[in-house]
Specification:
With 235 residues, the protein is an all-alpha fold. The protein has two domains: 71 residues, Arc Repressor Mutant, subunit A (Orthogonal Bundle); 139 residues, GntR ligand-binding domain-like (Four Helix Bundle (Hemerythrin (Met), subunit A), Up-down Bundle). Helix content is 69%, strand content 2%. It has twelve helices and two strands; from the N terminus they run αααββααααααααα. It has a two-stranded antiparallel sheet. Helix 6 runs antiparallel to helix 12. The chain is elongated and about 65 Å long. 25% of the residues are buried.
Length: 235
């Protein structure tokens, strides 16, 4: 997500502030300039900057101190889910290792959710997984299909919190997944995964959690290869 004017001023201000934190211009422990000069530097009005600072403070990015400079927090320790949502919007400025950590978190979250969802609504997943044979080799089609499967897991798990968590990651997942599914290895792994999951449902094995965990663990190794390749190309 890269913004240039004339986007909405508050959105533009958020982009400038968050990316300046993520790229190390203002690392944790550092202070922002005074409000007047900072607003001028960014190119927004002081009320717009003040509104944005208040919102980022509520998310845990910064600490506003009356009569003193605004300080950048250690956002990994001070932030919450709302910060994670903002973080996910700025894919080009994400800190090193963020995607791998996100994939590791997915291993904790998705397998038990998938188990609950399939036990609750096996027919829905049988019907959806039967569509996987028509995916072809288009990376964007794979990305959309795989994301929708995860959303179905969350929606049919019986816990309304799971969709709220996943929805925050929609934009970053689709960017990440496009690179992942651009590799034949990524597509082949997921084809096998969809087939295993469908067969498990049809045979009533009840081992969805194990199948999902296995493919998510494999996806981390594949993602690391994608990242290594991209660094070599960029270099």
């Amino acid at each position: 997500m890269k913004l240039e004017k004339p986007f909405h001023p508050a959105m533009y201000a958020e982009y400038r502030l968050v990316t300046s934190i993520l790229d190390g211009t203002y690392p944790p422990g550092s202070s922002f300039p005074n409000e007047r000069s900072f607003a001028k530097q960014i190119g927004v009005t002081r009320p717009t900057l003040r509104e944005t600072l208040q919102r980022l403070a509520a998310e845990g990015w910064i600490a506003i101190r009356h009569g003193k400079p605004t300080v950048v927090n250690d956002y990994w320790k001070e932030g919450g889910l709302s910060l994670l949502s903002s973080l996910a919007k700025y894919g080009e400025s994400l800190p090193n290792g963020f995607i791998t950590r996100l994939l590791e978190f997915r291993i904790v979250l998705i397998p038990p959710v998938a188990q609950l969802a399939i036990a609750s609504s096996p027919g829905i997943f049988r019907e959806y997984l039967n569509l996987s044979g028509n995916l072809g080799d288009d990376a964007s089609v794979f990305a959309d299909y795989d994301w929708e499967l995860q959303i179905l897991f969350a929606r049919h798990s019986g816990n309304p919190i799971y969709p709220l968590i996943l929805n925050d990651f929609s934009s970053i997942f689709k960017v990440m997944a496009f690179h992942y599914f651009s590799l034949e290895e990524g597509r082949a792994s997921s084809r096998d995964y969809y087939h295993q999951l469908l067969r498990s449902i049809e045979q009533g094995k009840g081992d969805a959690e194990q199948i999902v965990r296995s493919v998510l663990e494999e996806s981390i190794d594949i993602w690391k290869e994608v990242s290594k390749y991209n660094r070599q190309v960029d270099g």
